[in-house]
Amino acid sequence: MEESALKENSSVATDEEHDLNHGSMDSNLEIAQEEEQVRGILQVVSSTGNFWHNWDKLKSMLSFQLKLVLSEYPEAKMTTDQQNASLGETYSDLVKRLDEELHSFNEGPPFTLQRICEILLTARSIYPNLSKLALALEKNLLVTSTLTVCTNPYPQMMPNPEPEKASEEAQPQSNPIQNGVEPVVGDRDEIMTEVEEADIEDMTIDMDAFQEMVGSSEANSTVAGNS
């Protein structure tokens, strides 16, 4: 009886552990998908300088990306004393302050929205430490002018063509007949020979002119010496 009860309890514990692991995997997948979606939208804003989404929704995306980027810096894992020494404030106070500055825009995003998106997308490659990143973000958040939502169609991010297709499309353009240019009659080697011979003739003429100039200079020098 006891052995059966132990096996049953072990089975229940295993199922619970499996459910927890499965739930954790689902949660991580959802976070990864959300990160990808947010980055895609911010990339459009970064490349166009315009925005199409509801400002409150876009603001939430910016806040999400802001906290994510800040958390990737080593200062986020320092002790409170180390954070105060490095940042002049605690990490949590820094995040709260920047997030509040972002949420202070009620009517629309700051006119520096494009630059803010650029910073949040490439922060680690531009700013070596958190204090410099925070300074750049604060500079772009301490403005008063705002943007209005764009009424143009939302841009479609077209994928790059496959190399094979791109090569096939490029070939007709290189055809001289399709471009309206008549092909040059004659063998390519013959044409190159004519060009080389023309260069040699020009060089011969130049050498003759040079020798005449040298001869004239020497004659003038001799006359000057005799006088």
From TrEMBL:
Pfam families: PPP4R2
Superkingdom of the source species: Eukaryota
GO cellular component, one term: protein phosphatase 4 complex
Molecular function as annotated in GO: protein phosphatase regulator activity
Segments of this protein annotated with the region Disordered: 1-22, 154-187
Family from the record: Belongs to the PPP4R2 family.
Record-given protein name: Serine/threonine-protein phosphatase 4 regulatory subunit 2
Recorded name of the encoding gene: LOC18603798
